[in-house]
Amino acid sequence: MKPSKEEMEKRFAMAYDSFADAIFRHCYFRLRDYERAKDLMQESFVKTWKYLSGGTEVENLRAFLYRVANNLIVDFVRKKKEASLDELATKGFDPSAGAPGDMELRAASREMIHLLEKVDEKSREVIIMRYLDDLPVKDIAFILKESENAISVRLHRGLRKMRDIAENGGVK
Amino acid sequence: MKKDLEQIFEEAKKIKLPGHEKARVRELMLFYVKRSGAETEVDLPIQAVEYGFWQTFFSKGSKAYVWSPVFAILVLFFGVGISVAAQKAVPGDVLYPVKIASEDARSFFVFSAEAGADLEAELAIRRLDEAEKLAKKGRITEKVIQELQVKFLDHALKSKNKIAELRDKNKLSVAADLNARFESGLVAHKEALAKVASDENSLKEVQKIISDVKLILSNVKLARTEMKNNISGDRNLAKKNAEGIVQAAGNKIEEVNRIIKRSKDNLDPRSSKKLEKVLEDAKWDFASGKASLEAGDYSKAFSLSQTAILKAEDPKQKIQIQNELSLDLSLTATSTPENASSTDSGLDDHEDGADKSDITVGGEVLGTGTGTPAESEKPNMSTSSESETKVTE
Asked: How close A89 gets to chain B, by Cα (Å)?
């Protein structure tokens, strides 16, 4: 039996409470922009609600939210020219400056961003999903519409590169 | 060394939204969820565009179907006077429904995204104006503020969406002009709300709508930055947009110049001087923008003209607030568009005591409820034992 609108609203509110932080964090590390990450997080939930209220059946809501967020991020990045951190730093913009929180956390986000910047976007997206979002490879494959094998290869290569950089003191 | 990378990931996992920001976005979202699909006055302006003039007026369920004949009859019998009186009405006044009906009627004659964005921004500011008047009279209640919040958010989001529509159609100069004017209005009214409450209870209630203003303001400021960044690209288009906004900035400065001259007799001399100074700053930005346009630096011309509009609109907003509430904002230095910068998040949380460092670190359980990965699912970072799926290279 199809749930009532009220029931759907309650479940959706619960989904927000459970996943908002994770989706925000995902957007933040993908875009390196605190305000934009907040905007896209909100849009991800609004869009997901549109699908749900339009009758789309969703088995795995968490993975679905990530897929919507990923599509929004891809669209956003396609429209904007991606500036490297170095270029932004030269112009006096510090992406982790927008992040809230204490000094330790800002340092943590800066370290993470610097490492992520060293790998290509394709590796970055899977690394963030696997090691920051703790998504299983099966879900990542669903989100990105790729095979589990392809995801594993990308993870393996990307992580190896990041580890090399971290071990050789490349983290600023 | 391997542990360093793991440590970096573990620390990064603690990044999340501050509790109060997460809560605000939640409220906004649930507002959207509750209103979506409902046949209410909220949907009517969109129906006016999609379904045409006659269907909108005569389709059952349309609020216009109910109210516009009533309004039309009232105006016919009692003339323009009733309409003018109604414009000053606030929630709880007899004429307030007439005011809302006239706003709905206006919406039906709006077909372009530009006119729609302008109208919705005006209506959003009107709701803030109503909250200010009620707060000043000590008549603001929890129920009234909730209703005003819902209406304010509805109009503000519609304006924001229409501005985004203009942006997507590369009508950047029009979008930027509307956006800057809306931003200036929000800044001025955010300040007015904080200052106008006549008692503690009113202050407590207006804080709720101030939070909503801050949320919308952060979106609007972000849009301003994005538009500024979007101007590069096709050179002819960039030139066209830069010319458009330089023109708009010039028009705005002339308009506000006239307003200040007309209002001089009613203003404190110090206030008048301050407002003129703000306009002078705007003129400076406009002149620099014009020079950049002539030099072919369209990006700079666009950015300077945006700032000129933002600054020029400020005296106009403050004079209006002075006239409506007898509240002089010109002598206070906080939150003027002069302080606007491209990296300003717009969320002055320090004003109300909340600050961005109050997020919990590690103490709060991450990912409560469904979705928390089981221990067995947590990723193993050892590349020599990536056993979840066979790796083929």
From this structure: 14
Please report the domains of chain A, with CATH numbers, ordered by start residue: 1-82 (1.10.1740.10)
Tokens for B188, please give them.
Answer: 């001025």
Rounded CA separation B114/B214 (Å): 23
Give me the residue from B17, B229, B383 closest to A24, CB to CB. B17
3-state helix/strand/coil string of B82-139: HHHHHHCCCCCCCCHHHHHHHHHHHHHCCCCHHHHHHHHHHHHHHHHHHHHHHHHHCC
Interchain proximity B11–A45, CB inside 8 Å: no
Q: Best residue in A105, A156, A157, A165 to probe B by mutation, most B CBs within 10 Å?
A: A105
Query: What whole-number distance in Å separates Cα of residue B3 and Cα of residue A167?
Result: 10
What stretches of chain A adopt beta strand conformation (E)?
Answer: none
Residue with the bigger pLDDT between B360 and A51: it is A51
Residue B125: partners with Cβ closer than 8 Å, 6 or more residues away: B182, B185, B186, B189
Between A18, A98, A155, which is nearest B345 by CB? A98
The two tokens of residue B368 are 């409560």
Q: What is the pLDDT of residue A100?
A: 46
Consecutive 10-residue averages of pLDDT for chain B (393 residues): 73 83 80 59 32 41 48 52 73 85 76 87 94 89 86 87 83 93 94 84 85 86 84 84 94 94 87 92 95 93 94 93 85 51 36 32 31 47 44 35
Q: Is B368 on the interface with A (CB under 8 A)?
A: yes
Helix (H, G, I), strand (E, B) or coil at B138: coil
Best of B8, B14, B15 to substitute, by most chain A Cβ atoms within 10 angstroms, is B15
Q: Sort B57 into a burial class: Cβ within 10 Å, 0-12 / 13-18 / 19+.
A: middle
- State both tokens at B280: 């002078």
Q: How far is it, in rounded angstroms, from Cα B366 to Cα B11?
A: 12
Report ipTM for this prediction. Answer: 0.81
Collect all residues of chain A within an 8 Å Cβ-Cβ radius of residue B382.
none
Q: Which residues contact B105 (CB under 8 A, 6 or more apart)?
A: B64, B67, B68, B71
Cβ–Cβ below 8 Å for B391 and A156: yes
- SS3 for A48? helix
Residues of B in contact with A53 (CB under 8 A): 33, 36-37
Is some CB atom of chain A closer than 8 A to the CB atom of B53? no
